[in-house]
Amino acid sequence: MKILAITNQKGGVGKTTTCVNLAASLASLGKRVLLIDLDPQGNASTGSGIDKAHLKLSIYHVLIGEKTLPEVVVSSEKGGFDIAPSNRELAGAEVELVNELARENRLKSAIAKISGDYDFVLLDCPPALNLVTVNALTAASAVMIPMQCEYYALEGLSDLVNTIKKVRAHLNPTLEIEGLLRTLFDNRNMLAQQVSAQLISHFGDKVYKTVIPRNIRLAEAPSYGVPVLSYDKSSKGALAYMELAQEITHKENIRKEKIHG
Question: Residue 96, class by beta-carbon neighbours within 10 Å (0-12 exposed, 13-18 middle, 19+ buried)?
């Protein structure tokens, strides 16, 4: 089971869009997918067709130890994947967990109990380096960093890389950066091309080959509570996320082959 934390402390980089659409694309390839919404804004839940305003149970109840993951998981019918939804209640988890023992391991322990049930678990992290994000990084096998190719992008990236190093040193020694995903990409923009080239020269094959373009269909789909694959499967955005799902699946197959010799 691959546990992928999708994170960037900078907001507005297409993180939630990536979580929802990658989940749907992997599911369409026949993979069993669980999306865990770890953002109190609950946008991944809404974008998956879940009514966050009337949630009785959410990932908050798992983190504070009241419920198990299977008890809060619901199905995204339009997306074809399962989701542990979130809402504003999750903001309280920070405060409630402060004095708890092994508070960084809450999510890891919860996911360990469902290890045979899914091929991929995607963690939609909040745009902050807080205790919930640390929980995600402690539970994850790898990190995907969606980012816009713009002037300040590389600055924020160094903070995140340092956090990943700290988590690796103290909480999760096997954590690695799976890849950097270029999102909201406009090919006509010279600066975007320059930053993209910088990323590739610095991170090499850690940069996904797939590029997610700016696409109006991607922006519209969440307001209908569906992934773009259900909204307009021939749009550039839908095709890009299908390509990303295939790239990730291919990488995962190669990794497994190496392990099993």
Answer: middle
